[in-house]
Each structure stands twice: as structure tokens, then as C-alpha cells.
Design a protein that fits this description.
With 446 residues, this protein is mostly helical. 47% of the residues lie in helices and 8% in strands. The strands form four sheets. The chain has a three-stranded antiparallel beta sheet. Strands 3-4 form a two-stranded antiparallel sheet.
Length: 446
């Protein structure tokens, strides 16, 4: 429920406060909404499920079964050995009504017609036809009085006046069992809409990347709720033929969504596309908004105290513009900026050698850069970059060669936020200290 609310998907009805308290739900006040069709806790609806199951018996659409688990396993083993369809052998189906007492342990099974067909009228897939001979006599009510999913979902949907059942198309094979229950009770069948499953590109089963397949994990990695909402809305659905727009506001998606434009084919989940879309949304944020969203990531990593002092907030406000154009996920900010908040480890001297340069050339360039940075005033990007570029020309180097040596020395990283903005945030004293350490390491190679 927390994940849905984070995505901005609120529910119209559900358990009330007292129901959630009885169920032991933490922070019940956050999720309680109530509604006219309760109770919404399954264990509080057992009498209703039992009543419906017994009504099915009276109508000739269900029967009691007292087969033991051992007998059922023997039957299944024999069917597997004979390469037969594994299903209940209907041993109790035609017993006299009084053969099994309601007071002895038993289950109640659906009495599926032995002949004919059951048709699922699906709004997306069209008509899907099932031979009744291949449909199992499904258990509806277990011996402990709890319903199976097949009975509970039909009863709940009927009494809660559900008009559309929207779910993954892997549920299609079990749908005829529900259709038969509706028909047996002479209830109106809701509109079924089986949407395509989400797969990896190429059709493989959706796989984790860094643990993310749940809303909570996507949130912890730093995906924005508005970006994930936009991305998920376009999985298996398009707003129109030839439509090229991919970034939609929540209001636009709600206005343009049409259930009957959902594709039949599986939807490919591309992490690369999600990263791209999330980056677009990150770049659209104001600096202040982005700061508030990044702050928890810095704090969880131990880089920023909680609560964050106002003085440090001022520093962070300078960091945000440096990373905003580069972030794909908020969580990346920790790796990108850790060097700003803690001391870096002494680098292997080899990493400080510039591209296509000798250790001696790199050391000389580093010393000249240190001398320049020790004198430039004020210590700001606009006063540092021009003379550093001029120094590279004087040394016969490309700017990237000189800047790369300084970047490694000061950040400990090959890739980091813009160099001169980072130097300004670190401050002259810390920059010179790191350059001195790098100089000592390089000198050992020469």
C-alpha cells in the first residue's frame, strides 16, 4: 500500500481503521479509507463464503470431498506416470448427498460440467474457449473454513460490485472456473481484461537489476514516482497510432488512457528506457525540489547528518546544479559526490599518469596546476577554468589531459561532476592538500 501511495495511486475504498487495527497493520491511520462494501478483511467474511459454497451445493454445482492428502498425492503420481492431465479424479463427485457429513473434515469442490465449453469474453484478448473436460473440480472452500482464491475473488467482486477485472494474462487459464461460478449463481459476469505480462527485451522473464522489481526497490534506487508512473503507463499501451510523445503528465495519461488500446503482445521492460525517462524528470525539477529528494540518499549513506544543518544545505545547493544534468537515478548521487563529503583514499600512482603522458610529464603538469590553483582569486569556476586551459596550451597538452590528472587527484574518480565546480565546493585548502598527496604519489614513480 505504501508503494501505491508513493506512486500516487490511491484506493477508493478498503479496510477501515478498526479493521486494520484488528489485523495488526502498522500505521493504520495512513491507509484506512473504509467503504460501503466491507468488511474488507477476508477472515471477517468467512460466513459469507461458506453460505455461497453451500448454495452451490444446493444448486448442484458443488460437492463435499473428504479425500485425504495422501490419496490425492497417489492419484497425481499415477496421472503423472501415465502422462495424463494432473487433476482431481472426481472420486467424491457422485456420492450420495449424505455420504459426507458437514461435521467431518472435508472441502467443497466446484462441480465442473463434464462436456461442453466455457468461453471467456475478454475485452483485450477476445473470446478464449476452454473445453470443460480439461477444467479441474477446483476446491472452493478448504477444511479450515477459508475460501480458496477462486471462490473468494468471485464472491468479493460480486458483492463489492466490481465491473471490470483487470489483471495479467497469466490468469486466463483459471478464468473459466470463475465464469462457471458466476453462471452457477446466476450472477452477472464482470468484464475481464487480461493485460500482457511484462518481460525483459527479447521476451525473457522480467529479471532483477540491483534488486529492483518491487516498487519499494525502485524507490530506494532513486526513481521518481512521476517517472515510474509515466513509464509503467506506456508498457503495453500507446496513446494513439503514430504517437511519438513519451513524456506525459499524470493528468494527460488519465485523460488519454483507453483500455481497449492495450496491446495483446507482452510488454518489454527496458531499464535503459526507464533510466532515460527518469533522467528527463530529474532535469525538470527545480534545484530546491531536487535537493529535497536527494537529501535522504546522502543521509542514508552517512554523508550528510540528519537533520541537515542550514550551513550544509547551502553547500548542497551548490552541488545540485553540478549533478542534475548527469543523474539517471537519485541514488547515483552518492557515488558521484562522496568525495565532496569525506576524504578520498590515496590513489595508486599509475592512475595519476595522464593519457599518453609519462609519469614525469604528469608530475610536472600537476605541479604547475597546483601552483596556479594556489594563487587564483577568487577560487571560483569562472576564474579557474580559463587559466587552466591556457596552462594546458602552454604545456602542449589537451585540456582533457591536464584536467584528467587534476580530477583523479582531487576526486579519486575518473568520472565526476564538473571539475571546476567541484573544486570550488571543496575549497582551496582541501584541493591543495589532495594535490600535494597526489604529487607525492607521482614523485615515487619518477
Amino acid at each position: 500500500m505504501e508503494g501505491l501511495r508513493w506512486l500516487g495511486l490511491d484506493w477508493d475504498e478498503g479496510p477501515g481503521l478498526e479493521e486494520l487495527h484488528r489485523s495488526g497493520v502498522e500505521n493504520a491511520e495512513e491507509y484506512a479509507v473504509g467503504g460501503p462494501y466491507g468488511p474488507y478483511i477476508q477472515s471477517e467474511r468467512l460466513a459469507l463464503y461458506k453460505h455461497v459454497a453451500e448454495e452451490l451445493i444446493e444448486r448442484g454445482w458443488a460437492y463435499r470431498c473428504n479425500c485425504t492428502p495422501e490419496r490425492l498425492e497417489r492419484v497425481r503420481a499415477m496421472q503423472r506416470a501415465r502422462k495424463q492431465l494432473v487433476m482431481y479424479d472426481r472420486h467424491c463427485r457422485d456420492l450420495p448427498p449424505d455420504a459426507i457429513s458437514p461435521d467431518e473434515p472435508h472441502v467443497i469442490r466446484l462441480k465442473v460440467p463434464l462436456t461442453g465449453r466455457t468461453v471467456v469474453h475478454d475485452a483485450i484478448k477476445g473470446d478464449v474457449v476452454f473445453e470443460n473436460s480439461g477444467i479441474d473440480d477446483q476446491v472452493l472452500l478448504k477444511s479450515d473454513g477459508f475460501p480458496t482464491y477462486h471462490l473468494a475473488v468471485v464472491v468479493d467482486d460480486h458483492y463489492m460490485k466490481i465491473t471490470h477485472v483487470i489483471r495479467g494474462d497469466d490468469w486466463i487459464p483459471s478464468t473459466p472456473k470463475r465464469i462457471l461460478i458466476y453462471q452457477a449463481l446466476e450472477w452477472e459476469v464482470p468484464t475481464y481484461c487480461h493485460v500482457p505480462l511484462v518481460t525483459m527485451p527479447g521476451g525473457k522473464k522480467l529479471a532483477k537489476r540491483e534488486g529492483a522489481t518491487s516498487i519499494t526497490e525502485f524507490r530506494h534506487q532513486g526513481y521518481l514516482p512521476e517517472a515510474l508512473f509515466n513509464f509503467l503507463a506506456l508498457l503495453g499501451w500507446a496513446p494513439g497510432e503514430g504517437e511519438v510523445q513519451e513524456i506525459f503528465s499524470r493528468e494527460e495519461l488519465i485523460e488519454r488512457f483507453d483500455l481497449f488500446r492495450v496491446n495483446r503482445a507482452p510488454a518489454a521492460f527496458s531499464y535503459d528506457k526507464l533510466d532515460w525517462m527518469n533522467g528527463v524528470y530529474i532535469r525538470r525539477l527545480s534545484h530546491d525540489d531536487l535537493l529535497e529528494r536527494l537529501l535522504p540518499f546522502w543521509q542514508r549513506a552517512g554523508l550528510v547528518p540528519d537533520p541537515c544543518p542550514e550551513e550544509m544545505r547551502e553547500t548542497l545547493r551548490r552541488v545540485v546544479p553540478l549533478v542534475q544534468e548527469r543523474l539517471k537515478r537519485l541514488g547515483e548521487v552518492v557515488e558521484w559526490t562522496a568525495f565532496l563529503f569525506r576524504e578520498i583514499e590515496t590513489l595508486p600512482a599509475e592512475k595519476l599518469v595522464g593519457k599518453k603522458m609519462t609519469p614525469g610529464e604528469s608530475l610536472a603538469a600537476l605541479r604547475r596546476a597546483r601552483s596556479l590553483l594556489s594563487q587564483v582569486e577568487p577560487f571560483e569556476p569562472e576564474t579557474m577554468e580559463p587559466p587552466m586551459r591556457a596552462l594546458a596550451d602552454e604545456l602542449g597538452l589537451k585540456a582533457g589531459q591536464l584536467f584528467g590528472i587534476v580530477r583523479w587527484a582531487v576526486t579519486g574518480q575518473k568520472v565526476a561532476p564538473p571539475l571546476f565546480g567541484s573544486l570550488a565546493i571543496l575549497g582551496r585548502e582541501r584541493v591543495l592538500a589532495r594535490l600535494d598527496a597526489a604529487e607525492a604519489a607521482l614523485a615515487a614513480l619518477v
